[in-house]
Design a protein that fits this description.
single chain, globular, six-stranded parallel beta sheet
Length: about 700
């Protein structure tokens, strides 16, 4: 067990975000860390719960002990109970369930002008908990020399005590100097002063990650909500625009994420807001100042355009007071804004040098495929694959956003099939930054060159050049031909097309892989503690026993290919021989066939879901089963059961599901749910890139 104590150099270093980001980075590296906060710096005024602890519970499904309050700490110190204070912190620390964890991230105390003595307490905590100290500094507007001086002074303070610092993390870095160059100069200055500190990460300033919700704005101003209350928690403020001039001169400022402030009698501003909304620009909201609202006639005019999609607030403050007040809005993340803290935590984790952090730690004996580890390794493998993925729905907004993310993060080289003008129009309206390297291909300019290859593939089915040209007007067919001819490595579709529209061209032109009797699918279910595989939940309505056996084998191989040890449960409404009926007999037969075909796999069934997933139930209902209570791959008897189960688990337990990933094709083609989010598409693109590598290497997925 290793402990890291994060100590801030200043009051506003983003300490909680950095601490939680380090937890996330450790998780992604395959470790199982805990979060611990001895003393709360600020408590939520409504429920009296520390926000850092609340976020740890929500993001990592942990239950750390509630920290002491500042009032409790001050009382103990004022009555001479210094040692008792440290002992109480150690007692809290010992409450942590560390038996199954290999690291603890401890959020230190924040010294301020009123509590300078907390620096000494941090040194005692480090010594008492045998923690490696990590200094956290705000690098905004600091030169390497200035930062080195801060770090050196802090190092002297802690080296003089019993806890010697091991490294530092710089937060909110905004220098124009390259990070590597900055760190090199900084480390040289530290070395000159004989400081052994190592850089554990440099986190760039990212104002977009701190964007407040309209809900936060309404709370802070204590404003009345006139419209769009259901969108208050969804719209985020990227920029505050004070409508000091007429809308004619301000319309270019009405951009995605803009919060417009104007008095209610500014009818031109109301009209401009309505028109921008009607054209698809996702404004953050509108604040009517001076306690004035537009006339009833004007409200009747703009109501059809706004459709309650844009939050409209009313405040008694004048326009200047409103803007000034919002400029001083606290940056602390509200306890109920999990989306924002999750984005900030991911941003921090992305810039932690986890190899340096863990260089002195023992590596886990076996990589634990937790959801963060699964996502992290999936993205890393996709980046290493460097594959070309075609997206036939190239003018669809979510697809464009996902392609931009994948391109900017190096997850894959995406090709959008669409007219470039349409793509850029959507991107401008939705505030999507299109990377210069993202390929946008007009289908009309390439369609002709695939007519002859397609006729060659389907000539035995009577396909003529005329029919081929007609079919190639469908961008899914066109993208599939790009894949068939080897110009791309994979295809992702389904945001607006049905599953059949995506799979049919693949079956006709790509065909099934050697030895594959059918095409099936799996979902990766990112449960709180581990990743499970569900199959088949998207393709085969009523598989026979033989087909069900093949689905089980394909699903097991897919699990193994993505780092999940396959323990396959053949799901039924009966466990073992406790029930009877045609459906149970089918599952029994499929289990026997799968075992015979692949004796190297752990497969058992029929098993009820609880017997497969809950150790105590599995022990009771199937004590001799090698799978019961420990299953990682769940194979459902039919599509009705599988699709219903995956959606019930996903929605009821708020579990992220990645997929469906298709299995059994010669080349990777993957289908999306038509309700897919941008992140879902990004994950599917990453999976497709990984499949392309595995298929090239001859791994069956």
């Amino acid at each position: 067990m290793s402990q890291f104590l994060l100590i801030p150099l200043g009051v506003k270093t983003g300490l909680t975000s950095v601490a939680l980001g380090l937890v996330r980075a450790l998780e992604q590296s395959g470790r199982k860390p805990l979060y611990f906060k001895p003393v709360s710096n600020e408590r939520d005024e409504v429920e009296g719960v520390d926000t850092g602890t609340r976020f740890a519970e929500a993001l990592f499904h942990q239950q750390p002990p509630q920290p002491l309050s500042l009032a409790q700490m001050d009382t103990m110190l004022s009555t001479g109970q210094d040692d008792d204070l440290i002992e109480s912190m150690v007692a809290q620390f010992n409450q942590l369930s560390r038996a199954t964890h290999d690291a603890v991230v401890i959020e230190g105390l924040i010294p301020d002008s009123e509590r300078n003595y907390l620096a000494n307490k941090n040194a005692k905590i480090a010594a008492s908990l045998n923690a490696r100290v990590v200094l956290v500094a705000d690098a905004e507007n600091e030169t390497p020399a200035q930062m080195a001086a801060q770090l050196y002074l802090a190092w002297q303070e802690y080296a003089a005590g019993q806890g010697e610092p091991g490294g530092f993390i710089l937060n909110r870095y905004n220098s124009t100097q390259a990070v590597a160059e900055y760190v090199t100069e900084l480390q040289a200055a530290l070395s000159a002063s004989h400081s052994p500190l190592q850089c554990f990460g440099v986190v760039p300033l990212a104002p977009e990650k701190s964007a407040v919700r309209m809900l936060d704005v309404a709370r802070y101003l204590q404003a009345e909500v006139l419209r769009g209350s259901e969108h208050l928690a969804k719209r985020r403020v990227q920029e505050i625009v004070v409508a000091g001039r007429s809308a004619t001169y301000m319309h270019d400022r009405f951009k995605p994420g803009a919060l417009i402030i104007a008095p209610g009698d500014r009818e031109d501003v109301m009209m401009a807001t309505a028109l921008k909304t009607l054209s698809g620009v996702p404004l953050a909201g509108l604040i009517l100042s001076c306690g004035s609202v537009p006339s009833d006639k004007l409200q009747d005019i703009v109501a059809p355009a706004l459709k309650d999609q844009v939050p409209v607030l009313l405040t008694e403050l004048d326009t200047y007071q409103t803007a000034y007040t919002l400029s001083h809005q606290p940056t602390q993340v509200p306890f109920d804004d999990l989306e924002r803290i999750d984005g900030m935590v991911n941003h921090v984790a992305e810039h932690i040098d986890i190899a340096t952090v863990c260089q002195d730690l023992g590596k886990p004996a076996k990589l634990r495929m937790s959801p963060p580890a699964f996502r992290y390794h999936m993205m890393e493998r996709a980046r290493q694959a460097a594959k070309r993925i075609v997206l036939p729905e190239g003018n669809e907004p979510r697809t464009i956003a996902a392609a931009a993310i994948c391109q900017s993060k190096g997850i894959a080289q995406c090709i959008l099939l669409a007219k470039p003008a349409e793509v850029f129009e959507v991107a401008q309206a939705k505030g999507i930054a299109i990377p210069d390297t993202l390929e946008i291909v007009d289908p009309d300019t390439i369609r002709e060159r695939y007519v002859e290859p397609m006729v060659a593939l389907r000539k035995h089915k009577g396909l003529t050049p005329e029919l081929a040209h007609k079919q190639l007007e469908d961008t899914v067919v066109l993208g599939t031909m790009m894949l068939a001819t080897g110009e791309v490595d994979g295809l992702v579709s389904g945001a607006v097309h049905t599953t059949a529209n995506t799979i049919r061209p693949a079956l006709q032109l790509i065909k099934t892989a050697p030895g594959a009797a059918l095409v099936s699918s799996v979902f990766f279910m990112l449960m709180p503690e581990q990743v499970l595989v569900y199959g088949d939940c998207a393709v085969n309505p009523e598989p026979s026993a033989e087909e069900l056996a093949d689905i089980a084998i394909q699903s097991a191989d897919s699990a193994k290919a993505f780092g999940i040890e396959p323990k396959v449960a053949m799901i039924s409404y009966s466990t073992g021989s406790s029930g009877s009926g045609a459906e149970v007999e089918k599952v029994k037969a499929a289990t026997a066939l799968a075992k015979a075909k692949r004796p190297d796999l752990l497969i058992d069934g029929p098993l009820q879901y609880d017997a497969a997933s809950v150790p105590s139930v599995g022990q009771q209902k199937a004590p001799d089963s090698p799978v019961a209570g420990r299953a990682t791959v769940f194979v459902f008897p039919d599509l009705n059961t599988g699709n219903t189960t995956y959606k019930a688990v996903q929605r009821s337990a708020n579990v992220l599901s990645v997929g469906p990933m298709l299995q059994g094709l010669n080349k990777p083609v993957n289908d999306l749910s038509r309700g897919a989010l941008v992140d879902d598409i990004v994950y599917t693109i990453a999976i497709t890139a990984i499949q392309a590598v595995q298929m090239t290497e001859g791994v069956s997925v």
